[in-house]
Amino acid sequence: MTGETAQRDFEGSAEMLRALAHSVRLQILCAIKDTERAVGDIEEVTGIVQPGLSQQLGVLRKAGLVSTRREGKQIFYQVDRERLTSASDLLDALAGTEGRRPEAHTARIHSGGGAAVFAKIKR
Q1: Which CATH number fits domain 8-80: 1.20.1250.20, 3.40.50.720, 1.10.10.10, 1.20.140.150?
Q2: How far is residue 2 CA from its own chain's centroid?
Q3: Given a cut of 90, is residue 98 above it in pLDDT?
Q4: What is the Cα–Cα distance from 113 to 84, expressed in whole angstroms?
Q5: Is the peptide bond before 102 cis (omega within 30 degrees of 0)?
Q6: Domain coordinates of the chain in residue numbers?
Q7: Residue 110: DSSP 8-state
Q8: Beta strands, E only, the chain
């Protein structure tokens, strides 16, 4: 194993990728990518109803992809950009595209694109 491979948390990375690999969770992340939202607001924006919404938010929370803040009885969610950047870094490493453009992470976060762009199949 190389030094990088020995240091990588494969279980944590796999959990994070499993959390991302679900259409409902991706929809939730897109709904909160630019702003913090209360659960009721997420439900309104996405059309995902309780208790399914709470279940999917729990998966995202466990994977560390969202952070929360409580205000009274309301819980507010927002994307954990640092954790998503680590997901992007992992995918870049797998695709062999890491370090190609220093501004790539910032551009991907703001454009809605991401490291999954590497998945184009070339024949």
Answers
A1: 1.10.10.10
A2: 27
A3: no
A4: 12
A5: no
A6: 8-80, 82-115
A7: H
A8: 37-38, 66-71, 74-79
φ, ψ at 27 (rounded to 5°): -60, -45
Measured at the CA of 27, the angle between CA 121 and CA 18, to 5 degrees, comes to 60
Say if CB 59 and CB 24 are below 8 A apart: no
Q: How many CB atoms lie within 10 A of CB 117?
A: 13
Residue 85 has pLDDT above 60, yes or no: yes
Element holding 5 (H helix, E strand): helix 3-7
- CB-based contact 28:60 (threshold 8 Å): yes
Q: Which of 82-86, 107-111, 117-121 has the lowest mean pLDDT?
A: 117-121
- Which candidate, 112, 113, 122, places its Cα nearest to that of 34? 112
pTM of the predicted model as reported, rounded to 2 decimal places: 0.72
Q: How confident is the model at residue 3 (pLDDT cuts 50, 70, 90)?
A: low
Q: Tell me, what DSSP letter sits at residue 35?
A: S
The residue count for the chain: 123
Contact indicator for 19, 65 with CB cutoff of 8 Å: yes
